[in-house]
Write a structure and sequence with these properties.
Blueprint lengths: L2 H5 L16 H7 L9 H12 L6 E5 L5 H7 L5 E5 L6 H8 L5 E4 L13 E7 L7 H14 E14 L5 H15 L8 H10 L3 E9 L5 H22 L3 H15 L3 E9 L8
Helix pairs in contact: 7-10
């Protein structure tokens, strides 16, 4: 975790209800929210429609979270699937999904250094992980994704991006405020910045789409989780001390900072002939 992530809550972070101290994405997961991506389920669906996971693909997912995207990827019956994540949070949920698929595995490793072999994947997927890294962390993860991909392989990411026509000062203020609210450092890039990062590691961005930062809007929660899932989420929030107040603060933060940033998905490709194994 970055120094900024540790300090984002400021003084008094270690006191008060647990819900007030947790990183935002893990609080949402604890309350039962399965879709933790900034653009929601619909934006991930658009990304995977473009990535076209298939039965002859070897797939690596970096940071599978609680397994919502893994479920979609596994519906394609890929040649193999490996989810890579060092964090214990969400691990049991993902393993419960993977145990139904004999060609799926869970790898406890960092996305910057997975330990997997070179050119072992046709599709690498990573969501809501690059944004919280500093420049060096972003570069290391993208470099690892490029190393894992075979020629012609696809890299699908779902992150946050700045909207156009805002000053650097406005963006830095919004970045700091969002980091404070979610208690993890948020460092979005512009669309051009994401493309440049990918290109630095030999990956060509060929498609992108955007969605507003409506992660905690009631309509988005129902769309992402379904009616019963949304009701369960809100009921859990009422029961966990401090959770309702924390969710209110996070929602207000998303509404304010969402004027400057939103979710973005990008599909990039490693040049070369596809199908080389």
């Amino acid at each position: 975790m970055s120094t900024e992530s540790k300090q984002a809550g400021g003084k008094g972070e270690r006191s008060g209800p647990e819900a007030g101290r947790m990183q935002g994405h893990w609080l949402l997961a604890k309350l039962g929210k399965r879709i933790l991506r900034p653009g929601g389920r619909a934006l991930t669906a658009k990304l995977l429609e473009q990535a076209k996971p298939a039965g002859d693909d070897d797939i690596v997912e970096l940071g599978p979270g609680v397994g919502a995207t893994a479920e979609v990827l596994l519906r394609a019956n890929p040649r193999s699937y490996r989810g890579v994540d060092p964090n214990p949070e969400g691990r049991d949920a993902v393993k419960n999904i993977l145990k139904k698929h004999p060609r799926a595995d869970y790898v406890v490793a960092d996305a910057r250094e997975t330990g997997l072999e070179d050119a072992c994947a046709d599709l690498v997927v990573g969501e809501a992980m690059l944004t919280i890294q500093d420049d060096a962390g972003k570069s290391a993860i993208v470099a690892e994704a490029a190393r894992l991909l075979r020629p012609g392989g696809r890299y699908a990411i779902h992150e946050m991006a700045w909207l156009p026509d805002h000053t650097d000062e406005e963006r830095e203020t919004a970045r700091r405020e969002l980091s404070r609210v979610i208690k993890v450092g948020a460092r979005p890039l512009t669309l051009e910045g994401w493309k440049e990062l990918l290109a630095t590691h030999g990956l060509e961005a060929e498609w992108h789409d955007r969605a507003p930062l409506h992660l905690l809007e009631p309509r988005r929660i129902v769309s992402d989780e379904g009616l019963w899932g949304a009701l369960r989420f809100w009921n859990n929030a009422r029961r966990l001390p401090g959770a309702s107040d924390r969710l209110k603060a996070m929602r207000q933060g998303f509404q304010l900072q969402g004027k400057l940033m939103g979710g973005i998905v990008i599909l990039a490709r490693k040049p070369g002939a596809a199908g080389t194994r």
